[in-house]
Amino acid sequence: xxxxxxxxxxxxxxxxxxxxxxxxxxxxxxxxxxxxxxxxxxxxxxxxxxxxxxxxxxxxxxxxxxxxxxxxxxxxxxxxxxxxxxxxxxxxxxxxxxxxxxxxxxx
Length: 107
Known about the structure:
The strands form two sheets. The protein has a four-stranded mixed sheet with strand order 1-7-4-3, with no helix packed on it. Strands 2, 5, 6 and 8 form a four-stranded mixed sheet that branches. The two termini are 21 Å apart. 21% of the residues are buried. By secondary structure, it is mostly beta strands. Helices cover 0% and strands 54% of the residues. The protein contains no helices and eight strands. The model has no long low-confidence stretch (mean pLDDT 87).
């Protein structure tokens, strides 16, 4: 998928290794940053409270990516604001002609 013209972009977040209350989040679109890096744009909770991780499964025909959000360890009381975020997903192989799909819809 390519990003829509004029669509706002969120701040890129580094993956968080340790957090709780995990759940899949629907990503809005993706863009190829490098041959083997895709950036996914999404709405998420406040950056100070929430973090992101990803899970990726690659085949010859597709790249399936699930983006996971959760509450950072040691955070008490989070606001319920939604912010635009993004996460870069590193792939084993270049995207090429493969289709990029939402892995969370396949689980």
